[in-house]
Protein: ABC transporter
Amino acid sequence: MIELKNVKVYGEKNKEIIRGVTLSLSNKTLLLGPNGSGKTTILRAICGIRDYDGSIKVDGMEVKRISRFTKLSCNLSEAYSLGLKLIDKLELLKEIKDLDISLAKNMLKEVGISNLNQNYYDLSSGQVVLFNTVLALASYPKQIIIDEPFENVDYAKRKVIINWLKEYGEEGLIVTHELDMLSSFEGYNLYLIFEGKTFGPIKVNEFLESSIVEGEDPSALTVVEIKGKKFSITIGKDRGDKIKNLNNIDKLYLGV
Structure:
């Protein structure tokens, strides 16, 4: 179980980036929001990379007080920033997180990364995403914290990643801003995040059938606040923007 209670994160000049987020995650859940909404900041806080106010607990243990927790795994670049050869990173993760090197090699081969003697910094941006995601999943973690796993990755490899995300990890948070990937996660819960605040949860299949309309609708799946205005995520309305007609959540945010 991953629990966030009234979590706040501050940036430069004490600006509030994450604004009192409360979530309880007992399964794998999607977090959907535009660029700059605070998605990655929440993940960094959960992983102990970013300081926070409030409470974040993983299996009942406060993140700030955990010195080592091998059941939680992430694909954030900060966690793997050492400029080593790929094989050296695999060996290091085997020592500190019991990474299954054989599994990792097979997963990497599946997405076209077979030269493990190359330097991490020689990978393309898409390959970095793939490599980090393999590092996050190949230790059979209980909790997974996955940031933008489809970014700069071609469609064929995205299908492979979807299968990985479904197979590995029992609970956690998967962040994306790309709506066209959601149909592969039907039945999952998702939260929306705008301007550092979260809204939901909503079932993915219901969200894909919904529209966004201005104002508060009592029958809404959830009501979000964007740029100081209230908008309802509703099903069965003939007005508003259809979610399934948008490619990514940035278009929704910029269009309101």
